[in-house]
Design a protein that fits this description.
It is a single chain. The protein has 9 helices and no strands. It has about 220 residues and is mainly α.
């Protein structure tokens, strides 16, 4: 007979999280000074892998919260709003989390698998989503899949910032017209920002000259 949650036993997800929590207590209490240099390096690398796997688990829960409506039934305006209010997550980060959780559950399943295996980081996964979202819908699904696989492979070698540059390169290869359009738009935004900053700087300099006391006073 199937066990009822909270009656005969807790849900396996809650049990697993409790074990992870206890393991972190043990890790915090461990004497790291007794580790050899090589062991310290391996521990740090392994922690990064485990952090990625935990991030993947968090995204899976967020996706279930969003799909089931468990977040909004509390009165929150959206799942991202619930994350902001309850988990105290930055608003932009909360929106990105919900979007990434949905993407990894569907069109970016390969990226989700790599994150869950600890092969790439959460930041890598966000970069891959942004790079592929920049492709127009006209780009064939097989081409998108090949691009995703290539980015995942690069993420195993490069940091997220470098991967972002590779993502822009991929956009120019797979969708050159859109790549040029986005590049022109970014150049225009940069020009406007530079002009605005220069204009404000010039205004401050003129204001400063008007506020100087006349000579001899």
């Amino acid at each position: 007979m199937a066990e009822s949650w909270g009656v005969v036993g807790e849900h396996p997800a809650l049990v697993a999280l409790g074990e992870i929590d206890a393991g972190l207590d043990n890790l915090a209490a461990a004497n790291l000074w007794s580790l050899r240099p090589q062991q310290l390096r391996e521990l740090r690398v392994d922690l990064e892998r485990v952090a990625a796997r935990l991030a993947a688990a968090g995204l899976t829960v967020t996706r279930e919260l969003d799909a089931s409506g468990a977040a909004v039934e509390t009165g929150a305006s959206s799942s991202a709003g619930w994350l902001r209010g309850t988990c105290r997550i930055d608003p932009r980060a909360a929106n990105r989390e919900v979007a990434l959780a949905a993407a990894l559950d569907a069109r970016l399943a390969a990226t989700g698998a790599a994150l869950a295996a600890g092969e790439i980081s959460l930041e890598h996964a966000q970069v891959i989503r942004q790079a592929l979202d920049a492709l127009r819908l006209a780009v064939p699904a097989t081409t998108r899949s090949d691009g995703e696989a290539w980015l995942i492979d690069q993420a195993r070698t490069f940091d997220p910032q470098a991967l972002s540059r590779l993502g822009r390169h991929l956009l120019h290869v797979l969708d050159p017209d859109n790549g040029r359009a986005l590049e022109a738009d970014e150049a225009e935004q940069h020009r406007k920002q530079t002009f605005s900053l220069g204009h404000r700087h010039a205004d401050r300099r003129r204001t400063g000259r008007r506020l100087r006391a006349p000579p001899g006073r």
